[in-house]
């Protein structure tokens, strides 16, 4: 049965950059509200901006909607409006059914009091009846993995324990619509798995979910549909895989603009640019998992030097370095830098899973410590494909039943060439 | 801001920018609903705050009656030493003063409780939707607890002085209730502004102190011209003095006045509640943005 539980029509929300003005506007808005004005003003006052602008969306029963976007894209503001914490400045929100939010775990916890006492306070804040908690108290303690600590003051808990206890209580919410904001980001892996399991159960029970997360794997696994927000507007609303692609592309753009700064080194050699080539030396930025990728690093020689070491770092879209290559570690000696040229690194099987990867490069002295030049976000490589496999790397493998497995080592080779004579090393 | 109706067995809530005042019937219904819904939470918050407060304190419950007793003692000593002359009271001066300071405490705590409770709950307010009435109800429980503890001390004093107790004592709770309602009403009115600007919480103790001094608590009501005006415009004075007269003098209450005062204060409390309720979502956006 398809049933619309949430309808958001052209909702907007203004925020104010200046605290002083913001407080004063608060006074004015309060006055307007008490005089019974009809609707917020559509115009921005000084120092105001649209945190959410003309957002429309719908949510059906049983759907799980992902909300992704940069920090400040308006995700949390939208959730807070849906939850009724703050009023929209324009538009209309209609909620059908009991809405609850998993936003702040352990709300109302007092550090002096014991875990047991705080469970009841927290449950009351979330609107869970006491009888419900009485009945499932042992299950809650068990779920949180708190054990005997339940009768110790919460201030003696590790932050992980407090969060787990908060979630154990919140897991007993019984909503028609659940809002989840980044709670999965806290806690260790075991805890995150518990959270996911609980969310799956709620989904199966027909609860409509709205999930805000920066963890794209979580989004791709849980969400049937995803909305990308950018600067307060809906950039995309549809299939989760497409949404993630769009978000990553936007993310890359932002990262490039912010962090493309060169870090000048000693300057004898300078990095000019990096080309990303396919197996046929055609310049390309999008590949499939396992394609051959050739990275061509162009350098300029300001003063001839005898040797250099090249370090290439590959980062995933979340900024973590996934892997890298370093010529000296590979036992390759790069020498004869007397004229401009380039160095190729060939990766026969680029086995990283779909994401947008950025590449940083450093040109070290032959000693491997001082450097001539380094540039972050020199190039990017987009790996396409669905996210059938979780993780970052594809391990080449075959399946067998007890017989011999045939493995194919995927090594990389270094090729150095110079523009004029095409000499190699 | 919210519309509640029932379709397909699911409650429907609508949020729009329009002022909640434009649909009063619905607003009143949701106020009443939230007040009912807040009972359990209010009790939990009260138990939480009291347990935490006393667990971290050596003197514990003593703190409930120490402040009014100490204030009273200061004036009792000043009076006994003849440093100041507060006029002749019909009952032993210490009893007169202590009944006054305890009643004043009930008012002053009611006045400051709403803002204090809401400021302490800021992190919760910014993230969680719960009936905001619970914060106020829970704070009122706290004031009542302090009052009850003080009253046991007061009873001991009555026995000590062998002061006569008359049937009018039964009216005293009504007067005290009105006094507390007045304090809560004013406190609620200050809460939205106090959440935005710290000037309000900073000024409140000073104003309370001055208010204490211009109310005839430690002295008998003035009969001379400029001071009689002060007593006339001070809404606390007639309530507090009336309550004290009921308790220690056995004066029969003036029913008409009591009814009028009750109606006026009830109306004020309702209006304050209304303002608190519609202002809070607007304030929440400003304190956490």
Shape of chain B: globular
The major β-sheet of chain A equals: 7 strands, mixed
- What is the H level of CATH, i.e. the homologous superfamily of the largest domain in chain A? P-loop containing nucleotide triphosphate hydrolases
Classify the secondary structure makeup of chain A into a structural class. Answer: alpha+beta
Quickly count the domains of chain B.
Answer: 2
Integer average pLDDT of chain A: 84
Strand content of chain B: under 5%
Low-confidence region ranges of chain B: 1-7
What's the assembly state of these chains?
heterodimer
| Main β sheet profile of chain B | 2 strands, antiparallel
Q: Which CATH architecture of the largest domain in chain A would you pick?
A: 3-Layer(aba) Sandwich
Give start-end ranges of low-pLDDT stretches of chain A.
418-425
Biggest interface, which chains? A-B, 57 and 51 residues
């Amino acid at each position: 049965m398809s049933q619309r539980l949430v309808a958001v029509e052209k909702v907007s929300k203004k925020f104010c950059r200046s605290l002083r003005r913001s407080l004063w506007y608060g006074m004015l808005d309060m006055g307007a509200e008490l005089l019974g004005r009809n609707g917020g003003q559509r115009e921005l006052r000084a120092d105001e901006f649209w945190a959410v602008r003309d957002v429309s969306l719908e949510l059906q029963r049983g759907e799980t909607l992902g909300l992704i976007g940069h920090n400040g894209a308006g995700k949390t503001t939208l959730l807070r409006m849906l939850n009724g914490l703050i009023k929209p400045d324009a538009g209309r929100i209609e909620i059908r059914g009991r809405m609850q939010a998993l936003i702040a775990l352990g709300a109302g916890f007092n550090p002096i009091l014991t875990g047991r006492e705080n469970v009841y306070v927290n449950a009351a804040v979330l609107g869970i009846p006491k009888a419900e908690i009485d009945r499932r108290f042992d299950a809650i303690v068990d779920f949180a993995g708190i054990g005997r600590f339940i009768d110790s003051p919460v201030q003696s808990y590790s932050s992980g324990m407090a969060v787990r206890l908060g979630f154990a209580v919140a897991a007993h919410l019984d909503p028609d619509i659940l809002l989840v904001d980044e709670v999965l980001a806290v806690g260790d892996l075991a805890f995150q798995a518990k959270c996911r399991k609980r969310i799956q159960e709620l989904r199966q029970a027909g609860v409509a979910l709205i999930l805000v997360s920066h963890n794209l794997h979580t989004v791709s696994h849980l969400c049937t549909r995803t909305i990308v927000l950018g600067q307060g507007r809906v950039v995309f609303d549809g299939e989760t895989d497409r949404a993630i692609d769009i978000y990553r592309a936007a993310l890359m753009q932002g990262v490039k603009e912010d962090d493309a700064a060169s870090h000048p080194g000693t300057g004898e050699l300078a990095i000019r640019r990096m080309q990303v080539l396919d197996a046929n030396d055609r310049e390309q930025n999008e590949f499939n998992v396992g394609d051959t990728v050739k990275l061509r690093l162009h350098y300029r020689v300001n003063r001839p030097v005898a040797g250099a070491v090249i370090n290439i770092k590959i980062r995933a879209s979340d900024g973590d370095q996934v892997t890298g290559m370093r010529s000296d570690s590979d036992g390759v000696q790069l020498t004869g830098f007397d004229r401009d040229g380039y160095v190729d690194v060939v990766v026969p099987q680029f086995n990283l899973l779909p994401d947008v990867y950025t590449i940083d490069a450093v040109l070290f002295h032959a000693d491997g410590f001082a450097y001539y030049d380094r540039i972050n976000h020199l190039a990017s490589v987009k790996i396409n494909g669905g996210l059938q496999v979780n993780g970052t790397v594809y391990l080449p493998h075959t399946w067998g039943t007890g017989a011999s497995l045939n493995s194919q080592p995927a090594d990389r080779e270094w090729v150095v060439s110079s523009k004029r004579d095409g000499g190699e090393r | 801001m919210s519309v509640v109706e029932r379709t397909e067995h699911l409650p429907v809530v609508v949020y729009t920018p329009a002022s909640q005042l434009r649909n009063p019937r619905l607003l009143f219904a949701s106020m009443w609903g939230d007040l009912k819904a807040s009972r359990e939470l209010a009790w939990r918050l009260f138990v939480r705050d009291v347990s935490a407060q006393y667990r971290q304190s050596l003197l514990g419950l003593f703190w409930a009656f120490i402040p009014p007793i100490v204030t009273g003692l200061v004036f009792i000593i000043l009076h006994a030493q003849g440093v100041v002359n507060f006029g002749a009271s019909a009952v032993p001066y210490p009893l007169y003063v202590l009944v006054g300071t305890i009643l004043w405490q009930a008012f002053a705590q009611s006045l400051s409780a709403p803002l204090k409770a809401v400021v302490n709950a800021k992190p919760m307010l910014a993230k969680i939707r719960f009936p905001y009435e619970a914060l106020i109800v829970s704070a009122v429980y706290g004031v009542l607890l302090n009052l009850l503890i003080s009253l046991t001390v007061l009873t001991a004093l009555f026995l000590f002085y062998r002061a006569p107790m008359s049937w009018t004592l039964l009216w005293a709770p009504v007067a005290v209730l009105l006094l507390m309602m007045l304090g809560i009403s004013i406190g609620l009115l200050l809460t939205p502004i106090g959440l935005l600007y710290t000037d309000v919480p900073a000024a409140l103790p000073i104003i309370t102190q001055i208010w204490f001094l211009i109310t005839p608590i430690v002295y008998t009501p003035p009969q001379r011209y400029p001071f009689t005006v002060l007593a006339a415009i001070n809404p606390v004075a007639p309530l507090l003095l009336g309550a004290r007269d009921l308790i220690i003098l056995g004066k029969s209450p003036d029913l008409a006045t009591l009814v009028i005062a009750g109606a006026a204060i009830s109306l004020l409390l309702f209006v304050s509640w209304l303002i608190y309720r519609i202002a809070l979502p607007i304030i929440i956006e400003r304190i956490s943005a």
